[in-house]
Specification:
Length: 295
């Protein structure tokens, strides 16, 4: 007989505007056997705003007790409990408590589901005015200056749009470090107090944003940074183009495919590489072989 376990529910909560709460959130809060909350005081404020009451046991689940409390919650799940996990804002596990509990539940083959809700990452990305077709979320940068610079250097050539969370009192240092590593002209957007009364999206080059932030910024911050520009293809002379074609041919490629591949590498029209190959072949045919032409 298959053992039936409980269910872990990750519930997204509003990042500002309470009306953005997903409709299912109220029902889950009322029916869960256990509600694990990052801040139980904020949970009380949320339930009051939604006009609901929790019927299950409420426990705290935050960075300081996450490791110790996870086994207790997993055992409750294994015994059939429905555990609802909520954080202060947004989706649990995304730079918030939750990953350890999800990983432990998955390890025990316990069902994990979600009540999807607001996300500061996606909201800031959509409002930034920067490319959104490909992006990566980098979370919070290290607090120490050297470690922060090191982390930024790791993604200096990243082509995808970058999304970061940052504390307001560190924003000026972070933007200055980004301007140093990525370049002062790299475009970015600082999204502050998303969906709240004083929502603001400040867009501009990193250098300008760093100077603006030096005056002091308040509120919840999400930073979106344009990806690195594509590297300019190296300029290759005709002799180098012919050499690369010859190397590919010697490796077994047909000349047509070799020419196409070299043209793509160099960012040149195939015709230009073809003409270089033909010129080298003609030069080899009309004079003594010098080992650089094509037969």
């Amino acid at each position: 007989m298959t053992h039936v376990t409980g269910t872990l529910v990750l519930a997204g909560t509003p990042i500002g505007e309470i009306a953005d709460a997903p409709p299912r959130l109220a029902a889950e809060l009322q029916t869960a056997d256990i509600v694990a909350a990052e801040d139980t005081r904020r949970l009380r404020g949320l339930t009051r705003a939604l006009g609901v009451h929790t019927s299950g046991r409420v426990v705290s689940y935050f960075e300081g007790n996450e490791s110790a409390r996870t086994p207790e919650l997993v055992e409750a799940l294994a015994g059939g409990a429905r555990v609802l996990l909520v954080t202060d804002a947004g989706m649990p596990s995304v730079s918030d408590p939750g990953y350890r509990l999800v990983a432990a539940a998955v390890e025990r083959d316990i069902k994990v589901t979600a009540v999807p809700g607001p996300s500061a990452v996606l909201t800031a990305l959509a409002l930034s005015g920067l490319p959104v077709d490909r992006f990566c979320f980098e979370g919070f940068l290290p607090r120490k200056a050297g470690e922060r610079l090191g982390r930024l250097r790791e993604v200096a050539d990243e082509r995808r749009t970058l999304v970061y969370f940052e504390a307001p009192h560190r924003l000026d240092d972070t933007l200055a470090a980004m301007a140093e590593v990525f370049g002062a002209e790299r475009r970015a957007a600082v999204c502050r107090e998303l969906t709240k009364t004083y929502e603001e999206v400040k867009r501009g080059p990193l250098g300008e944003l760093a100077a603006w932030a030096a005056e002091g910024v308040r509120g919840e911050i999400t930073v979106v940074v344009e990806g690195a520009p594509a590297a300019e293809p190296a300029e290759l002379d005709a002799e180098e183009l012919v050499r690369r074609v010859r190397v590919r041919e010697e490796a077994g490629e047909r000349r047509k495919e070799a020419i196409a591949a070299v043209a793509a590498e160099a960012g040149l029209p195939k015709r230009e590489v073809f003409d270089a190959v033909v010129a080298a072949k003609n030069a080899a045919a009309s004079g003594p072989g010098n080992g650089k032409g094509l037969s």
